[in-house]
Specification:
Structural class of chain A: alpha+beta
Strand order of the largest sheet of chain A: 2-1-5-3-4
CATH class of chain B: Alpha Beta
Number of domains of chain A: 1
Number of helices of chain A: 3
Number of strands of chain B: 10
CATH architecture of chain B: Alpha-Beta Complex
CATH topology of chain A: Ubiquitin-like (UB roll)
Number of strands of chain A: 5
Helix content of chain A: 25-40%
Oligomer: heterodimer
Shape of chain B: globular
CATH superfamily of chain A: Beta-grasp domain
Helix content of chain B: 25-40%
Number of domains of chain B: 1
Distance between the termini of chain B: 27 Å
Strand order of the largest sheet of chain B: 1-6-8-2
Order of helices and strands of chain A: EHEHHEEE
Radius of gyration of chain A: 12 Å
Number of helices of chain B: 4
Radius of gyration of chain B: 16 Å
CATH topology of chain B: Aldehyde Oxidoreductase, domain 3
Distance between the termini of chain A: 31 Å
Strand content of chain B: 35-45%
CATH architecture of chain A: Roll
Structural class of chain B: alpha+beta
Chain lengths: 83, 158
């Protein structure tokens, strides 16, 4: 699985992208966030305001309950501020 | 029934500036009767905090940005009779007074061009994955989402 981070979420975590094999018990975005939070405090800090965070699965906006698999590209980012 | 020509759609994410006159010439597809432009300009002041801004930097999600803007533009073309749409959004470092975004919509009649342009811009502000960071005296601050932008999209939910 590929995970991408943008804006201040990228800064909190300290990287823009990472890839790893999804553990079999992780089947949704919510479970993925819980899994990442268990890795270290940088993720906990980045995901502290979970309701603020926008999620894309394969470049499409997706809800936090979305099912995911090892071939997906998941992105986490704050509300957008372009234009 | 006569088949409608498909609209000409041009979406560009770039660090370079754009030339509004040249872009409008390209929008002369299918002999439009009206072209409406929106040009966003970098403000030199954070109005909420009354602080000056030295520069602005924009990052985006390559691939998703283009997809989101294309979806918005295609929806505008379904809602109104539109002959051409151009969207240009700049990324990277920008200075106050720089052009940041261009939306040009061509149509046979003005109301479709006005509405189409307004629609594309409103949804771009809330859906296209861009993020701005402001810099002032070497201090960086991520721009916060403005809930008024969300409110602006409500008029299109009919």
């Amino acid at each position: 699985m590929v995970i991408k981070y943008f804006s201040w979420i990228r800064e909190h975590i300290g990287k823009s992208e990472e890839s790893f094999d999804l553990p079999s018990e992780v089947t949704t975005i919510n479970e993925l966030i819980n899994y990442l939070n268990g890795l270290n405090d940088k993720y906990k800090h980045a995901f502290a305001k979970r309701s603020l965070i926008k999620i894309a699965v394969n470049k499409t906006y997706s809800p936090i309950e979305s099912k995911i698999n090892n071939n997906d590209e998941v992105a986490f980012f704050p509300p957008v501020t372009g234009g | 029934m006569k088949k409608k020509n498909s609209p000409l759609i041009d979406i560009k994410i770039q660090s370079e500036d754009f030339d509004v006159t040249k872009e409008n010439k390209k929008l002369h597809n299918n002999q439009p009767g009206a072209i409406v432009n929106f040009v966003g300009i970098v403000r030199g002041v954070d109005e909420k905090k009354n602080e000056t801004i030295d520069s602005l930097s924009l990052e985006h999600y390559p691939g998703m940005t283009e997809l989101e803007i294309e979806n918005i533009v295609k929806e505008s073309c379904q809602r109104w009779d539109i002959s051409a749409v151009t969207v240009i959004h700049r990324i990277g470092k920008l200075l106050p007074s720089d052009q940041i975004v261009f939306v040009g919509v061509a149509s046979k009649h003005r109301q479709n061009a006005f509405d189409g342009c307004n629609f594309v811009m409103d949804w771009l502000k809330t859906k296209a994955p861009f993020w701005k960071v402001e810099e002032n005296k070497n201090k960086k601050k991520w721009v916060e989402f403005n809930s008024l932008d969300n409110d602006a999209t409500k008029k299109w939910k009919t």
